[in-house]
Amino acid sequence: MTTLDCARDWEDGVYHIKERLAPRVISISKVCWEDGVYHIKERLAPRISSIGKGLLYEMLRSAKSKDSKSAWKVLIMDKLTVKIMSYACKMADITEEGVSLVEDIYKRRQPLPSMDAIYFIQPTKENVVMFLSDMAGKSPLYRKAFVFFSSPIAKESVNHIKRDSSVLSRIGALREMNLEFFAIDSQGFITDNERALEELYGDEEGSRKGDLCLNVMANRIATVFASLREFPLVRYRAAKSLDPTTMTTFRDLIPTKLAAGVWNFLTKYKSTLPHFPQTETCELLIVDRSVDQISPIIHEWTYDAMCHDLLNMDGNKYVHEVPGKAGGPPEKKDVLLEDHDPIWLELRHAHIADASERLHEKMTNFVSKNKAAQMHQGSRDSGQLSTRDLQKMVQALPQYSEQIEKLSLHVDIAGKLNRIIRESSLKEIGQLEQDLVFGDAGTKDLINFLRVHQDVTRESKLRLLMIYAAVHPEKFESDKLSKLLELARLPQDDMNAVYNMRLLEGSTDNKKSSLGTFSLKFDVHKKKHAARKDRTDQAATWQLSRFYPMIEELVEKLSKGELPKNDYPCMNDPSPTFHGTSQSASVQANQVPTPHSMRSRRTATWARPRNSDDGYSSDSVLRHASSDFRKMGQRIFVFIVGGATRSELRACHKLSTKLKREVVLGSSSIDDPPQFITKLKLLTADELSLDDLEI
Fold this sequence. Notes:
This protein is of the alpha/beta class. The chain has 25 helices and 17 strands. Helix 18 packs parallel to helix 20. It comes from Datura stramonium. Residues 578-619 are annotated as: Disordered. This is SNARE-interacting protein KEULE.
């Protein structure tokens, strides 16, 4: 983080901004109340989810000064930084740090000359002009300004600020925070390029819009590494053929162009950012949706994925219905399914059947260890507690209110999911989906299913056809498409999603410019029509848990050093001291003082023990679920252009434990199946060629 604090030196008739080295990035592992004030406990090398909050505290607290006449401050942001802040923390966190008012930099604001202002903005020319107009002249809007840019600011913009002497005397700090990503998980982030599919794979491919999208994406990815003080070995999915007889499109080169953009920003950080590693400390693999078109469509059977797929959630917000007071009508309550909920953390990656069983056990244990709960259960023959029963317990057992409410929430959610599965014939649909993917079902099986199950939802039929298209593209070359369309009774706009899947396909060695048809094959060497091979090292414990996303296979190969360099070349040649293929080599590399991968001495904040003996607590599970990151090797980052899925995020958590290396997933967005299908429908199916494209 480059710091450009305002020095109080008067030279040549003007104030000059003096550059100094930036302090070490602080992340928050604990905020505690001691001696009447909050104290930050520091730790090095934070995880993705704690970066934003750590930089937030650093930003807000650096604005505190002894000569400040007011304890309260104004926080001014733009459209992007508001979103970054909302991902990192809640309004209560901001208020706790002395912010009484949050303002939009582009809206007219009331002058508050007795208060200090914190600007957290992008380093655009427009924002710099707005800032200068706020603080220039005889009547500035605020007493003093502490300015924090979300990414590196251009020298000409700094010079523009330095030229206004009236503003310089009112600047308390001018810093680059390198924070333009959005943490969605302890091991996941997005760049918030929601329209990446449209801008990169749509009709106007190769346009200025596509290049701008990749540039923004590359910049935001680079800020992740700047914030974590990591310098990656950059690998990417290469276009299969670049010979004169092959049609090479903009889409084929998306991972290549993005890797080049990320590398460009990283080399700048390497030469300008204090304490940035000079040799590789981790690995970054850049791919796009062409490596796996099935994961965004198929029904995933884990608790987290099913919640987002089936419950019409708004982000992580779930609307929970609780019984009304005094027998009144039910009340609706918004709850967030996030890391602060220990039950959610324990169950989110569990199969829905496993999650339901564990919830039943928790409920049974709670009742057996609390006599008052047993009394409220009464003489129910079934031994089951309803949501209303649990709500009554909240009133009777106030000391357990938080535990019972969370248990009630998840019992309600699991009940809804199981009801939807039952009523929508999802088990039968899911079985056919996975049989198609693994080559155990074909055209006849799909036709028979559509004939027998005519009441299946339109979306389920569409998803089946999209999976079928991914595994059996040749069937759509003749009249098979019209027959299946007639049988499924799907409208044309749904079928557009099937046709548009060809725009996400990766090029193959056989793809000539004269070809008019499309291929969605994932492995041309497979003899049967299958998009996956069964994993011999994994036994399916639960029904419908056979499917796995392709990044699971790619990351394992990367970790073992088995990823083909022809298909996934390096943007930068690894230094002789870099070892990223094994745990022992990674740990050994981390013992070198400089450069080093700042990954040690960290424990996830949610893994702190909570004392509880009520039979409810999930703490024992959380203590082990967090993994011991102190002993882990170098991080692996995998970035997917075009949207990532819940199953891919789950795979990264699973691989972190298996490989003893923290695996971090990044993407342009996180998409649930309905979102992804909607985005596909907006694309067109016309292929374009760019013969003279230069990287």
